[in-house]
Amino acid sequence: MSLLTEKDKPIVQLLLNTGTCPRCILRFCCVGSQTLYRHPYKDLMKDLKEFLKNNQEKEETVCFDIVDPPCKRIRLEDTEEGLDDVNHNGALQQIPSVNDENTAIENSAVKVCNVCLGILQEFCEVDFVKKVCQKVHSADYQFTSFVFSVSLPPQMSVRERAAWLMVKQEMGNLGLSLAKDDIVQLKEAYKWIIHPQLSEELDVPADGKSLFEVSVVFAHPETDEECHFLATACPDCFKPAKNKQSIFTRMAVIKALEKIKEEDFLKHFPCPPSSPKNLCVALEIQCNNSAVFVAGRYNKYSRNLPQTPWIIDGERKLESSVEELISEHLMAEFKADSFNFSSSGREDVDVRTLGNGRPFAIELVNPRRIHFTAEEMKGLQQTINNSSDKIQVRDLQLVTRSAIGRMKEGEEEKTKTYSALIWTDKAIQKEDVAFLDDIKELKLDQKTPLRVLHRRPLAVRCRIIHTMKSEYIDEHHFRLHLKTQAGTYIKEFVHGDFGRTKPNIGSLLNRTADILELDVE
């Protein structure tokens, strides 16, 4: 059973006098009962008025008939000296007497709370909840639960600090203390009220671990005006940031409040906080599903297809890519906002990828559809394969983020298999290339190739050719099958890259060699 006791009475009366709403009063009285905050606003106001009229003995209590865990209580501690009442130039403003009950009751019907700026008033009502739910339904997301987040105007922290200093002084006069951390956080109280209403309207449970987020961003037109003094007092806390319309972000304001001295705060901001001129506005109501990850393997059969879009100086060189041929179908089916493509290594535009294919993964950002059966994934795989003769995908499946990390692990230690068609300037016989078959674990020193130097740092990389097997074709051509350490530049191993790769096929054969075709197997 949640209670307000006689020692809460001065706080209730003080806050009502200064224009604070019933739910914020409960927060400052450290009431931890979730159910109590959900009571209708008018009922809470009526109960607080009745509580103030109760003149029975000090320990007698007014009970709100609800069942909940024990509430947080104000700690009884050694008496602290309260703040001296001084004028606005120094600290606290003159406030109505806590004994003037008539004043408290007359002022209790506040239009906009001077602490929460209406968050725990207007935006707890059914009409606003329905507005949020309409936004969710119109966005057409798949979800089985939701997590609710809220962004508050930065000056709310300033107003709460001012109200706390006022209450702390009154508590000190009564031989009590109130730590700022004991006050129920506004976000917490708001979620206590909103969660059950959203859950009922959306017909799914609220779950802190849900992948589907419903968020509301509140703003207030007087934010800059009310926070401006902090920028003067703590200029180091406020730095212009990209994509931020104002320097007064929530984190910057909190940082400044932690830094500013109490007496300096009281010189520049009214305590108690004044009644606001305007109500908060719900600037944005947003929905977002956590990313979904799809993985598989792809084969590339074209020698004129890059892995990712080939764009140089803003000009597109080829009309498509492996990434686009796969992702366009996934984007359409998952109804995602965007995607991120990754793979285990990459091949050049003129290199085919054969064999079991190259592992790839696509992160689908903010997808509307997230549930797919194994049969549906097979159907999606078939759709991709039917759309082009340049690529094929296999083993298409939904995976976790951690599986993507494992795909990238140990890339340097992997072994890759290649088939290269090689040309030589001088005529060769079968026995001229047969000795390559006997070379094992050949160590190479490869400087960053000239063709990738514009996007890779200059370095010398040690790579290993594990085995080679030659296949003689004619006097100027042979095919070489190689097993190498991942990350080996095969083209450069063949032609030498002007001596940047040593040894190379040209130096081993003592003639000029070049590569005509390369396949990853």
Automatic annotation (TrEMBL):
Reply yes or no: does the keyword Disulfide bond apply: no
* A GO CC annotation given for this chain: mitochondrion
Localization, per the record, is: Cytoplasm; Mitochondrion; Nucleus
Q: Name one GO biological process term.
A: tRNA pseudouridine synthesis
| Catalysed reactions listed for this entry | uridine(54) in tRNA = pseudouridine(54) in tRNA; uridine(55) in tRNA = pseudouridine(55) in tRNA
What Gene Ontology molecular-function terms does this entry list?
metal ion binding; RNA binding; tRNA pseudouridine(55) synthase activity
EC number(s) recorded for this UniProt protein: 5.4.99.25
Superkingdom per UniProt: Eukaryota
Q: What is its main location?
A: cytoplasm
Domain Pus10 N-terminal eukaryotes span(s) in chain numbering: 113-287
Group of enzyme by EC: isomerase
Q: Provide an example Pfam family for this protein.
A: Pus10_N_euk
Give the keywords, sorted: Coiled coil, Cytoplasm, Isomerase, Metal-binding, Mitochondrion, Nucleus, tRNA processing, Zinc
Q: Which part of the chain is the Pus10-like C-terminal domain?
A: 293-521
Please state which protein family the record places this protein in. Answer: Belongs to the pseudouridine synthase Pus10 family.
Q: What is this protein called?
A: tRNA pseudouridine synthase Pus10
The lineage, from the top, is:
Eukaryota, Metazoa, Chordata, Craniata, Vertebrata
